[in-house]
Amino acid sequence: xxxxxxxxxxxxxxxxxxxxxxxxxxxxxxxxxxxxxxxxxxxxxxxxxxxxxxxxxxxxxxxxxxxxxxxxxxxxxxxxxxxxxxxxxxxxxxxxxxxxxxxxxxxxxx
Length: 110
Known about the structure:
The chain is mainly beta. The chain has strands at about 10-15, 20-25, 40-50, 50-60, 70-75, 80-85, 90-95, 100-105. The chain has no helices and eight strands.
């Protein structure tokens, strides 16, 4: 399948939905090449189709050293992905079969 490895932190945090058809995998040290930013992190969402894991969506961080994906959870259905980073900035994104829409992006106070 497409479960290719990224940095040494690829797969440190994972989550799978109830029926095992969707998997979220973090890579905290991934760089955002489009924005030329280091260690933004990423989360890859895979679907299990035809006996293979296929990449559905990749969420790429947009802050230097943001390292998204430290904490990660898919809901039972696999259509909500909640994640945080080392700075405790919770972000919740909701995705369906074809697109991804952010519903919460707020920094918390310590």
